[in-house]
Amino acid sequence: MSNPVRVCHERVLPNQIFRPQATVRRGGATRAVFEWRKMWVTRTRLRVRFLGGTTEQQRIVREQAAWWTAHANLSFAFTNDLDAEIRIAFDAGDGAWSYVGTDCLHIARHLPTMNLGFLDGGTTAHEFGHAIGLGHEHQNPSPGIQWNEDIVIRDLAKPPNQWTEEETRHNVLNRYKRDQIRGTHFDPHSIMLYFFPDAWVQGGHGTEENHVLSELDKAFIKSREAYPHDAKPYVDLKVGARTSTRAAIGMPGEEDVYRFPVKSTGTHVIRTGGNSDVVLKLFGPDSAGRLIAEDDDSGVGLNARIKASLLPGEYIAQVRHAKKSATGAYTIRVSRE
User: Fold this and answer.
1) Bridge partners of 317?
2) Are 33 and 160 part of one and the same domain?
3) Residue 145 within any structural domain of the chain
């Protein structure tokens, strides 16, 4: 291989190392690579801090990050805040990588959540795709690429990647589980797809190097399954209300977002009710980018329940169905203990 291929790492948290991507199963709907459990709340203002970098490097970051916010109902604020949700290093010896979506919130504040060791083409936009929840398009469960595995493993063991077989399988060969992601059919023009040489692909036809967002990237990231501009308005909850608030999600992929005030420090319980299987995330205080806790089935039956000591401020609760194709009714309630 005359021109070595540089492929980014999709960083995973330690508790996910032994359960990352998995071989695709037959049957079911075909979805693209959007890790929906790691989505930010729609409308979130994400702060971005540079950990070094030249003026030109930082300019490229600002420019390509805006490719996403031109379509998604999210915004980026470049700041020196020490607790910024996204923190970018420019270590040339560490390749290009990013944690995915809200996984960024689990990383120590002095460490980067993204590294841009090279800035070729649309690399920065690719890594910001990860930062807002997108995975690698070549690991789409849809059978878009059939690999010559031995050749891929051999070539990626060489510089500049120098990956073990396990790293190559995680970052290239293995596909996502269908229940990990939602989205579109395989998109050969996606910014989340890297160039792969002909020798790596059965049939001898590799992939092109995509430098800009595809039309499908743009359409998907602003759809109801991602960050739509016509998202439902926030619903106010009263702490300690006598009855639960009734709600329903009518379209697959939608989120419901609630807010409630905490006037004094104390233990609060946020719980859902009903027959629906929902996932609950809690953010705050005073920030939809600061994840406090998330839960799936700690409540009664398949309901969610979060118990946490909360400081004064405004809190955001996000509700989604646990199954990406599900709809249905549920209730939600906040109480103080």
Assistant:
1) 258, 282
2) yes
3) yes
Please tell me whether the overall predicted TM-score, pTM, comes out greater than 0.85 for this model: no
Give the 3-state secondary structure percentages of the chain, helix then strand then coil, rounded to 5: 20, 25, 50
**∠ Cα 93 114 128 (to 5°):** 125
Q: Cβ contacts of residue 276 below 8 Å, gap of 6+?
A: 249, 302, 321, 326, 328, 329, 330
Q: 65 by DSSP, 3-state: which?
A: helix
CA nearest to 282, candidates 243, 246, 310: 310
Which of 167, 196, 221 marks a domain boundary? 221
Give the SS3 label for residue 46: strand
Query: Can you tell me the distance from the alpha carbon of 319 to that of 304, in angstroms, rounded to the nearest whole number?
Result: 9
**Gap between the terminal Cα atoms of the chain:** 64
Q: Token pair for residue 282?
A: 């809690």
Between CA 43 and CA 264, with CA 290 as vertex, the angle to 5 degrees is 110
Q: Is 332 exposed, middle or buried (0-12, 13-18, 19+ CB in 10 A)?
A: buried
> Are 205 and 292 in a shared domain?
no
Determine the structural domain holding residue 172 and report its residue range.
9-221
Beta bridge partners of 256: 319
Return the structure tokens found at 118.
């090279």
Crossing angle of helices 55-69 and 123-131, rounded to 10°: 60
User: Are residues 60 and 171 both part of a single domain?
Assistant: yes
Examine the pLDDT at 27 and tell me if it is beyond 60: no
Q: For residues 8 and 171, give the distance between their C-alpha atoms in angstroms, rounded to a whole number.
A: 8
Nearest to 41 by CA among 1, 3, 75, 79: 75
Q: Partners of 68 in the beta sheet?
A: none
pLDDT over threshold 80, residue 32: no
Query: Residue 171 sits in a domain of what CATH number?
Result: 3.40.390.10
pLDDT in tens, 289-330: 888 999 999 999 999 999 999 999 999 999 988 887 789 999
Q: Rounded distance, CA 125 to CA 65, Å? A: 6
Do both 239 and 199 map to the same domain?
no
Residue with tokens 């690991």: 139
Using an 8 Å Cβ cutoff, are 329 and 277 in contact? no
Specify the amino acid at residue 214.
S
